[in-house]
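Two proteins were folded this term; both appear here.
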Amino acid sequence: MSDIEEEEVGEERDEDVDVIGEYEGQRNEKCQRHGIGRALLPNKDYYEGRYNQGLRHGLGLYIFKNGARYNGRYSKGKKDGIGIFIYPDGTKYEGEWKDDERHGYGIYHYANGDFYEGQWRKGVKEGLGCYYFKETGAKYLGLWMEGKMNGQGQQVTKNYRYHGTWVDNLPYGKGCFSFSETKVIQHGFYLNIMGSDIDQGGLDEEEEMTIHPVWRPRDITLFSASQLPTEPKPLEYPSDVSRSPSPEPTPPPSVDVYEKDFFKDIAQYDKYYQDEKLMWQTDKWDTEILEELKKRAEHHHMSEEEEFMHEGTLFMYSIEFNNFFLL
């Protein structure tokens, strides 16, 4: 699912105070939203959190009228830093953001039980990542480009592991299969063959044509790590697209308009962010949040899928790709 963007609603500035939406909270000497506050927007979206000179900045919670919600860090009005976005259908992204896009390291949980964990760039999967297929239990571990499996990678199943290269989500070219029980390697290559699927409904010619990967075996040898392809490595980007630092803390407002602690009467919103409340109630830097989540995961009884996720997290941080690939 593509990201759900917040409706374009302008923030208050100078003489536009009290014109857009309902706001309760702190302001600065220019009467801009500044400090801690909450707002009910004209489109019925809701935000509570930190502001800086009229813009969302720092930790905040944004609840959409359709049930989606974002809980995490903002910088100058945009999602930036560590944050969690939950969509109406139950899909969820947990990780780094930059300039309102998924960017850096993150985990995306799909409604069907699949999940992706790894690098993101400008809103799409790009770099080193792992995709888990819930239905089959298979995993793809390798490189991504523009949201697709592209480059060196491995397909891992219960009985075998394929090492090779992917092009637009399909294996292509030279590769090899290793089998855990027989301790042998089957060498060969994949061909992508165009075929047609005849449908009684009468599809267009272009829609009938599909690409099928076909494996051509050539040789079988005893297992030897030296015969396996080089392991994929994380992509490195120039400094202009590197991850964003944590936003600086919002300076205290010069004018305090509080008459009560209104955060005590928002129990009705608890149901929207039970698990994410930790990020709102604390003002920790991103690294401290990640460390705390790791510690909580270590003491939690993990299912098979959770163990794989935890293993993947350690892999992504240590970049010890070889150890992570061990069954």
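Next, the second protein.
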Amino acid sequence: VGIMMLSSFKEIEWPEISEAIPAFFAGIFMAICYSISYGIAFGFITYCIVKVFLGKAKDIHPILWVSTGLFIINFVILALISLGILK
């Protein structure tokens, strides 16, 4: 499955920085966390961050903003649970 996923990396527009950085980090995060869903979540978060820094925040669809916010909340809650702050 991993090799099949890597084969689609050739279709990424690498010169387009706002597409390449989130795709790269999503792939890396999938491999590090052994979780496709965490990789996708990190890709969404990274995409929004890159677009904001490039001054293209209005290009992001509202549904993506909501999804990104929910992913961030999910990661924060998981971190608090793993630290024992939440039970």
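DSSP finds four helices and no strands in the chain. The radius of gyration is 14 Å. These notes refer to the second protein only.
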